[in-house]
Design goal:
This protein is α/β, with parallel strands linked by helices and 293 residues long. The chain has nine helices and eleven strands. β9, α8 and β10 form a beta-alpha-beta unit. GO terms for molecular function: glyoxylate reductase (NADPH) activity; hydroxypyruvate reductase (NADH) activity; NAD binding.
Amino acid sequence: MGKKKVLVSHCEIPQPALDLLKEKYECIICPELPAPTRQQVLDRLPGVDAIFWWGKGSLDKEFLDKAGPNHDLVIDKSSTLDHAATEADLKIVVSILSSYNTHNQWDIARPQWLLGQQLKDSVVGIVGLGGIGQAISKRLRAFEISKLLYTGHKPKPEATTYSAEFVSLDMLLRESDYVLIACPLNSETRSMFNEGAFSKMKPNSVLVNISRGEVVDQSALVKALETGQIFAAGLDVMYPEPLPPDHKLLSLKNCVIVPHLGSATLKTRTDMAMLTARNIIAGLEGTPLPAPL
């Protein structure tokens, strides 16, 4: 009996993870750059036993049916990114604190030029106190904030570790100087941040989104930034990705945008790939997965 086959959906998976899989299995690696098309992945699926999926597209019934009867499991890149996403979030906040978005202007002689907000003594509200939200909460204490608020379906016992106070979304919006979005995207959170939400926020407030772009109504955000309804925004996610070059958000001086780099550190990407590879091995060998979904 030959080796089991693993389809790897991208050729730039960190090498240690590929080496781990190659010790046991035949790896079929999609070579296309910057990424294979959906059809190119589908064409390689028949007869594989597992799929190492790294991509933005959705895995659905078509993929599973195409793989055929040998197919045992699909493993997505694992969510080992709490630390990196947290660092990305705080980097965005720091960029806004100092109003680094200068658009190549330099006018330090003016005492009111390029003034930002500060975290010290501020109220920070987190929408979604999951793994990333908790990691953010832990690090925020070093900035000597005055109060940490969070909202969600119900209070979380972990919140006591960070002295975080559970409040309604309305209260969080009204009281927070910084609003950090770290919740999942679903039917409840889609366009949660709309004109109504922005109307409740302080004029000095800063919005930071590291969740999913669709949580924010971008047209409403543009209006809130242009009219001074809120002070600034920082986005690691948006829709579509990338934004069209002429999108209004890209030209606003009070909006900092980074290209969805929440997991973009060497260690995090390698850890994600290694855990995914170990999940595949465990699944194919019939042992418990290190990180089951």
